[in-house]
Design goal:
It comes from Thiogranum longum. InterPro entries: DUF2914. Keywords: Signal. The chain has a single domain, classed as Sandwich (Immunoglobulin-like), CATH 2.60.40.1930. The protein is built from 2 helices and 10 strands; from the N terminus they run αββββββββββα. The strands form 3 sheets. Strands 4-10-9-6-7 form a 5-stranded mixed β-sheet, with no helix packed on it. It is globular and about 45 Å long.
Length: 167
């Protein structure tokens, strides 16, 4: 029986050493996400803007990633909604500098926190970014709530957020 315990300890040690070597290989390769962002459009393989909060009527968003030193590896965009994975989009990296993007079309009423995690070949995270998909008037409702917490200000007395003021 003692020899079984010894074999298990030896196997466990080998697994730890193997994991450490794999992690060191990933670090030695120097692969990284140089830039990443959510955007409403891609032009010439570059994002045209940066999205932190998206509102309808927009129903889609892109996630752009500029990868460095990952040639020959597979990188995955894992899309998550409210902390739950909803899709995986793999890319085979074809050069030392490789730009990729994936797109998500939002189902109706999928308001809340969205994120993309960029994963390496081993499923380890290289980068994470979040944004919020919110109804059009969610920002105004939050502003009214924040301001009214300090003072008792009725919602109709809130300053206008659009248009000209004659005051």
């Amino acid at each position: 029986m003692w020899y079984r315990a010894r074999i298990y300890c030896l196997l466990a040690s080998l697994m730890v050493i193997s994991a450490q070597v794999g992690a060191e290989e990933a670090l030695v390769a120097g692969g990284e996400v140089a830039r990443a962002s959510f955007t409403t459009r891609i032009a010439n393989r570059e994002p045209t803007d940066r999205v932190l909060v998206l509102n309808p009527p927009a129903t889609e968003v892109y996630f752009f990633t500029d990868l460095r030193n990952l040639e020959g590896h597979t990188v995955t965009h894992r899309w998550e909604y409210q902390g739950r994975a909803v899709s995986n989009v793999p890319f085979v990296v074809g050069g030392n500098r490789w730009r990729v993007f994936s797109k998500k079309v939002f189902p109706p009423d999928s308001f809340g926190e969205w994120s993309v995690t960029v994963l390496d070949d081993n499923g380890l995270p290289l980068y994470v970014e979040l944004f919020r998909y919110e109804p059009v008037d969610a920002g105004r409702a939050n502003l009214q709530k924040d301001l009214s917490e300090g003072e008792d200000i009725p919602a109709q007395d809130m300053p206008s957020t659009a248009g000209d003021s004659s005051e």
